[in-house]
Design goal:
mainly alpha; Arc Repressor Mutant, subunit A; 9 helices; HTH-type_TetR-like_transc_reg; TetR/AcrR family transcriptional regulator
């Protein structure tokens, strides 16, 4: 016979369910995860899960929102940590890679999700746009770039970082510190020429 469920305050229970669901979704993927699996992993009944989330999609959207807010705050802190453009680049790459390594499940939810739900895709697109707008603003603070130019450079920087993450996963000869240094050197080498125009 199982022991009775411990009653937690509503916010605490919701946070616990989000943490468990994040782990299950990150491991199994959106499409193969069920609310039954999450309830079982959390040690609660399915009705308890539905007291907090109307559906699997509702729960996943909550995960996207919390993960996105976390990443956005890390990037904002990095960009605001210094006025030196080269150090901003270094801090931003560091924040991104630290997030990937230290908050792997959140990273998977945001960047490697197998969800094709319209609302989820809209939230993920909004996250990417928010991150990009921070980088675009930083680029335009440093160099006289049009919006289109800054967005193009931003996409190149973000795309490079995403490719390097995949490389780090498959190639164990380069660590995060080396990746941050290499990308900073490459990015700063190119970007400083725009400041000289």
């Amino acid at each position: 016979m199982s022991s009775p469920q411990q009653r937690l305050p509503r916010d605490q229970r919701r946070n616990q369910l989000v943490a468990v669901a994040r782990s299950v979704f990150a491991t199994r993927g959106y499409r193969t995860t069920s609310m039954d699996m999450i309830a079982e992993a959390a040690g609660v009944s399915k009705p308890v899960l539905y007291q907090h989330f109307d559906s699997k999609q509702d729960l996943y959207l909550a995960l996207i929102d919390s993960s996105a807010a976390h990443l956005d705050s890390r990037l904002a802190e990095a960009l605001e940590s210094t006025d030196d453009p080269e150090e901003q680049i270094r801090a931003t790459y560091r924040a991104y890679f630290d997030f990937v390594v230290s908050h792997r499940e959140e990273f998977v939810i945001i960047f490697n999700s197998d969800v094709y739900e319209t609302k989820a895709e809209q939230r993920l697109r909004a996250l990417r746009e928010s991150a990009a707008s921070r980088v675009v603003a930083a680029l335009q603070n440093y160099a006289r770039l049009s919006d289109d130019e800054a967005r193009l450079l931003c996409r190149a920087l973000i795309g490079t970082a995403e490719v390097v993450v995949k490389q780090l996963d498959s190639q164990h000869g380069v660590d995060v510190d080396s990746a941050v240094s290499l990308l900073t050197q490459m990015s700063w080498g190119g970007l400083k020429s725009f400041g000289e125009r």
